[in-house]
Design brief:
Strands 1-2-3-5-7-10 form a six-stranded mixed β-sheet, sandwiched between helices. By secondary structure, the protein is an alpha/beta fold. It has nine helices and ten strands. The radius of gyration is 17 Å and the shape is globular. This is Enoyl-CoA hydratase family protein. InterPro entries: ClpP/crotonase-like_dom_sf, Enoyl-CoA_hydra/iso, Enoyl-CoA_hydra_C, Enoyl-CoA_Hydratase/Isomerase. Belongs to the enoyl-CoA hydratase/isomerase family.
């Protein structure tokens, strides 16, 4: 059974993250399946835009610490979302953590409901938001990035919208997305592709400039002693040794 089922209606293909056993964490398998699904959407002329949704109470819990993807494969997935010649819209009604925020930040438009929460948890694991910085830092408020990267605090949809992490915070996420999807259906394929190229140019430049260095940094951090303690503590549901 696929972890990323697809459904199509009037030009919009919905890709649903459906891995409830690990809260839609970014396992090697989910990253590969989502990448394949996006490639199929890019080639299909009937697809005007992609809606990225999820099952359960978590949009994406970040990297699957038991079966993590190769950093290069994860970067390739993020870049494919940004470079896809069709808009990718995220529908969030649950929690988003760590690497899941990179996936969210790569999307062109995003809406989150009152049940959503967000946190950059990497610093609490002995890691850093390395590769996900490429789609995020060009779009995030710098002061907000400085705070939430460092502290790992949770914040809500209203704060996510204020800081540029998402586009819309709404009490009804489907109601908020209705005019967005209608607008995408009314736009021409060429108009969408060329308009997206304009708004993603800075993000793609970050990928072209920083990918190799940040993949190396991510691999180095994951292999470190502190990260081993942080990940072990997380899996054992205890505080890591450095907590004061």
């Amino acid at each position: 059974m696929t972890l990323v089922p697809a459904a199509h209606e009037r030009g919009i293909t919905t890709l649903t993250l459906d891995s409830p056993a690990n809260r839609n964490a970014l396992s090697a398998r989910l990253v590969a399946e989502l990448g394949d699904a996006l490639s199929a959407c890019a080639k299909d002329p009937s697809v005007r835009a992609v809606l990225l949704s999820h099952t359960g109470g978590t949009f994406c819990a970040g990297a699957d610490l038991r079966s993590p993807p190769d950093p290069a494969a994860f970067v390739a997935l993020l870049r494919s979302v940004v470079a896809l010649p069709k808009p990718v819209v995220a529908r969030v009604s649950g929690h988003v953590r760590a690497g899941g925020l990179g996936l969210l930040g790569a999307c062109d438009i995003s809406a989150a409901g009152p049940g959503a929460s967000f946190a950059f948890t990497e610093s609490r694991l002995g890691l850093a938001p390395a590769v996900i910085s490429m789609p995020l830092l060009p779009r995030l408020d710098p002061r907000a990035a400085g705070r939430y990267y460092l502290t790992g605090e949770r914040f809500d949809a209203a704060e996510a919208a204020r800081t540029g992490l998402i586009t819309i915070a709404s009490e009804d996420v489907d109601e908020a997305l209705a005019p967005v999807l209608d607008g995408l259906r009314r736009a021409s394929p060429q108009g969408l592709a060329e308009s997206k190229r304009l708004v993603t140019a800075t993000v793609l430049a970050a990928f072209d400039r920083d990918t190799d260095a940040l993949v190396e940094r991510s691999a180095r951090l994951f292999a470190s002693r502190e990260a081993a303690e942080g990940v072990t503590a997380f899996l054992e549901r205890r505080d890591p040794a450095w907590v004061l």
